[in-house]
Amino acid sequence: KRMILLQPSKLLMYLLFIPILFIKSQSLNNIINELNKRLLISTNFLYCNQIDKLYKYEYKYLRHLPLINLMIFTSTFNVTQLEYNLGAENKLFLILGIEEPPYDLFHTLDLHLQTAEYIMVLDEPLDLKRETKWLEFVRHLWQLGYVHLLFYTSFDEKLYHKIIFPKLLLEEATVEHYISVRGSFRNLHGYPVRVAAYNNTPRTLIYVNRWGKEVFAGFYMRFIRAFIGSINGSFVPIRTPSNSPGNCTLNLQNGTVDVCADALAANTTAFSLTHGFRLASANVLVTHAKPMHSYRYLTAPFQWSVWLCLAAYVILVVGFLSFIYWLRIGKWDVSRYLLEVFSSLLFSGFYLKNIQGKERYILFGVLFIAGFVYSTEYLGLLKSILISEVFEKQIDTFEALVESNITLMVDPYDQKLFAKYNMPKILFSIMETVSFETLLEHRNRFDQDYAYILFTDRMALYDYAQQFLKHPKLLRIPIDFSFLYTGIPMRKSWFLKDHLGRAWYRAFESGLTRKLALDADFEAVRVGYLKFLTTEHVEAQPLDVDYFVMPAIALAIGYSLALFSFVIEMTAWRMSGLFLGCKTQSRMKIKMGTSEG
């Protein structure tokens, strides 16, 4: 009986002990299930470098997990494959079997998977709130950008999450409470945020106001300052040695700054970027077409093909009229009929007195119609040109830019950027690399002897400064290239990367970025970085020598044609004289021969 009684008592105790273990083992599973559900996590990773403990955890936890993508690792793994090829962006890491902080595991991650959830399961009894080594471990991970950290103590089934500000500590929490404060940094309590400060207008602009205070302004700089102020951080500007964006990349790599107030293209080895939501493109800025010289007004109304047709018409008609006159009179009078043809073309009166008969009416009609059409078109276009401004052909293609022999000026940073992001090869032949300061010196005074490459936001600034000009000094060639998704560059291990990215997206969505861009353009001109160019005044000017070039050219052409016709007539007269002399001599020889016979 005793044994019979003993056995049921042991059996009862065993049966009571199993539900306790089951409830205890379900506690962590419930946490994982709740996180997967609330955070829409589709992939879980389990890491345990002790295989003997892994079997215990399999019985204790894994058998009770719901159907979900689960991968188990006991040694090293390919971080890139985990981050980009397995599951969505939301992932959960369950780290089991650890007695000491797993520094090696996060060293292997190498700043990847910073947005994943990490649950570290501790089996040994300890007081996490007082354990210095775990607090230092949390501080280390936070400085690396890992902020979604949870600790689960299996011996008492408690869940802990971290609090960074105002003092680093681990606090007991529930899943609901953790979700409500997850990754939020609403109050940094004056924590310093280091921002690279340099002039790259309109994105960032540094100047001294009238009260002698240094102002950090610009499109991106004001947004970053507002973001830091909204979370009660301290704005700490770090001046760079020069104004080249290359200093931003260098400082981010060295970890001397947290963020740059600029927009750069992706460089995954050097820094992280906010998500790109706007496609930026580059254009070439070239000089406005030069005003046409007055001496070219004579030929401006017609294209060269029309002038060639007109010259052929004059030669044919003058030759035909002179030939008819020679048949009738026996003389060449090229100058008279050249004058008649030009008179008809200018529609100033012509007569054809020396030509009689039916052909006179036919030729008169031809000259009248041709002269009327030509004079109406030519004189009308010439008058419109004289009372308005006429310019040379505008450079609107890369081929025309190369033919114009204008140098394309770029700085070293842009030269590397365009070499990487598909700049048209035809432009490399005219490219000249200069220092950033030299580039600004020429570009900011709108030097028309050079061409420049600008992205969309900076192009808008130069258009803004020229808005009151009748004819802008610099115009863009309407060909876009180097399409880039740019973003705000940030230190790869900065814990506020996602927060700044979300704030930047909301600013774009609300229209704030457009307002900041317009304010930056206005401020850049107001403080003198760029100046509104002097408005062109239209007023009467004293006559210059240039105004007499056109009539002088017309007079020279007239005298040249007169001389040309005179030479033709003299040549024809001499040739006719020689012909008549030879004819007379031949007749005399024939008569002498006849008389002798």
Structure description:
This protein has 18 helices and 20 strands. The chain is of the alpha/beta class and 597 residues long. β5 and β6 form a beta hairpin. It is a multi-pass membrane protein. Keywords: Cell membrane, Glycoprotein, Membrane, Receptor, Signal, Transmembrane, Transmembrane helix.
Q: What's this, in brief?
A:
Helices cover 47% and strands 15% of the residues. With 597 residues, the chain is of the alpha/beta class.
Summarize the topology:
Layout: H1 2-38, E1 43-47, H2 51-60, E2 69-73, H3 79-84, E3 91-95, H4 103-109, E4 117-122, H5 132-143, E5 149-153, E6 158-163, E7 169-172, H6 175-181, E8 192-197, E9 205-208, E10 214-217, H7 219-230, E11 234-239, H8 246-254, E12 259-260, E13 272-273, E14 279-287, H9 304-329, H10 334-345, H11 358-386, H12 398-403, E15 407-410, H13 412-420, E16 431-433, H14 436-444, E17 450-455, H15 456-465, E18 474-476, E19 481-485, E20 489-490, H16 497-510, H17 512-526, H18 549-596
Keywords:
597 residues; alpha/beta; seven-stranded mixed beta sheet; six-stranded mixed beta sheet; 18 helices; 20 strands; 47% helix; 15% strand; elongated; disordered N terminus; Insect_Ionotropic_Sensory_Rcpt; receptor; membrane; Ionotropic receptor 60a
Integer-rounded radius of gyration: 44 Å
Number of helices: 18
> Taking all residues together, what is the mean pLDDT?
81
Query: In terms of per-residue confidence, which ranges show pLDDT below 50 for 5 or more consecutive residues?
Result: 1-26
Question: Percent of residues in helical segments?
Answer: 40-55%
**Which overall shape is indicated by the principal axes computed on the Cα atoms?**
elongated
- Record the strand order, biggest sheet: 2-1-3-4-5-6-7
Number of strands: 20
What percent of residues are in strands? 15-25%
User: Would you tell me the structural class of the helices and strands?
Assistant: alpha/beta
How would you sum up the major sheet? 7 strands, mixed
End-to-end distance, in Å? 186 Å
Determine the oligomeric state from the structure: single chain
